[in-house]
Amino acid sequence: MENGSVTQTIENNISRIIFYHPKGNSMPSCLLSDLANAIEEAGKNEEIKALILQSTGKSSFCAGASFDELIEINNFDDGTKFFSGFANVINAIRKCPKFVIGRIHSKVIGGGIGLVAACDYTFAVDSVTIRLSEFNVGIGPFVIAPSIVRKIGVSAFSQMTIDTEWYTAQWAKEKGLFNRVCPSAEEMDAEISNLAEKFRSSSIDAMHELKKLFWDGTENWEDLLKEKALVSGKLVLTEYTKNYLKNFKK
């Protein structure tokens, strides 16, 4: 459990993919790899009609990149490989032929916002807050930028990147990151169940075609996100970022 876990359950043709890490659901490379693989496999499973992506624990839906792993990166190849992990999860969601529903129960930071933005439909609890803090760290949200800009536009993305404060669930809904905001986790789960039930009786062929339509124009993301990983892979080695991570760790 030190490296976290990814588990999947399938009930009534709906896959529920749950990720966990003991440090606020932060994402080391091994967890990112397992998550991307789970989404890819669920997409191929003919029994599954749709996916629900969620995490467990109360502190965060996702705390973004694992600072423990970032601190250990000491060469460009390792840095690029790490940030490519987020690219692989986003592309797995993008290429999955089924709808991916995001269940957001608590705060979302950094790379986690990129994963939320990649989901086709998202639910969040009203108390959720979100924050892009990469500029402070010195690495910038380059890999997740296309995913977020696609959902909320350049203006809102620029605001979050420059003004690295916490933003509310209502703000995120107004900008298009969240589709529904619910008063409690219980009400959110009831609404997710209602939507999932509709998917069970929907045309899988129509869903496949709609998924292509939703992601039209992103066919180059396989290469684009890898190019973005090169930028962060370089920045994570700068003296500024190394000092920031060390001080944060202390």
Number of helices: 11
Helical/strand content category: alpha/beta
For the record, the count of structural domains works out to 1
Average pLDDT, all residues: 96
Main sheet specs: 6 strands, mixed
In helices, the fraction of residues equals 40-55%
Taking pLDDT < 50 over at least 5 consecutive residues as the criterion, the unreliable ranges are none
Principal-axis shape equals globular
CATH architecture: Alpha-Beta Complex
What is the CA–CA distance across the termini? 23 Å
CATH structural fold name: 2-enoyl-CoA Hydratase, Chain A, domain 1
Across the major sheet, the strand order is 1-2-3-5-7-10
Which CATH top level class fits?
A: Alpha Beta
Beta strands, count: 10
What is the N-to-C succession of helices and strands? EEHEEHHEEHEEHHEHEHHHH
Tell me what you see in this structure.
The protein has one domain (5-186): 2-enoyl-CoA Hydratase, Chain A, domain 1. Strands 1-2-3-5-7-10 form a six-stranded mixed beta sheet, sandwiched between helices. The chain has a four-stranded mixed beta sheet with strand order 4-6-8-9. It has eleven helices and ten strands. Helix content is 53%, strand content 18%. Helix 3 (76-95) packs parallel to helix 4 and helix 4 (111-118) packs across helix 6 (145-162).
